[in-house]
Structures are given as structure tokens and as C-alpha cells.
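Friendly challenge for the regulars: who can give me the C-alpha cells for this chain first? No prize, just bragging rights.
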Amino acid sequence: MGAFREMSLNTIRFSIASAVLAAVSIAVPAKAAAFLDGAYGSKEGCTYAKTGESSGADDFLLLKDDGVTTSVSACEFKGMPKKTANGFTIKAACEADGEVGPEDIATLTKSAKGYTVSFPDGTKLGPMPKCR
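First reply, four minutes later:
Bragging rights claimed.
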């Protein structure tokens, strides 16, 4: 009976350890791939990127590796970006005014004025200069 009891305790320990590892792996979100050389945005967006504080201004615009945010919408980047001749393309899941839209492809184009983010429906955000 002692061998059976020892085996049962080992099985229970293994099950508990497996459950803990599974919970930890689910609780930790995957970090977005770093592909930009910093944050880009309007004056309000850059202030938020540096301080975490926003004045709530209508001209809020912020582009970071994890997505692009305006005063009325937010798009989270998904997966790995694909390099283009003058920027990147990446999947984006957007939400505007509380409504979730379908996943779409965002095109990030870099120019002398910064990045512009474009969507297939014709929406363009930017250009956004690099935050200093």
C-alpha cells in the first residue's frame, strides 16, 4: 500500500504543477513584436506615451508596437509585421466608439514626416512624427 500511496502523491503533485504552469501561461499575454524605433504621435499622444496622462484632447494620436490609438478608436496589432519597401503591414483588430470591427490589414508607411497608418476602407491616420 505504501508504494501505491507514494505513486498517488507523485501523481497529485504532477497534476498540481501542471495546472499551475497552465494557469501562468494563460495569464501572461504575448508581447507584441518590437518593430518600430519608438513611439510616434501627436503632441497629446506623445505626452501620454511619456507620462501615462492624457488631457482628453480630440487630436490624440499614438502609434506604438502594440497598436494605434486615437481619441475615439484603438487598433491592436496582431501577429508579426511584414516589412515593405517603406514601412510595414500588420493585422489589426480595431474598436471605435465601443463597437468592435473585423480584423483588417493596417499599412504603416514611413516618410520624412513620420508614419501614416492606412486601412483598406480608406481611413488614414497621420503622418505622426516620432515622439521625443
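Residues 3-30 have pLDDT under 50 and may be disordered. The chain has two domains: 1-30, 40-128. Your move, everyone else.
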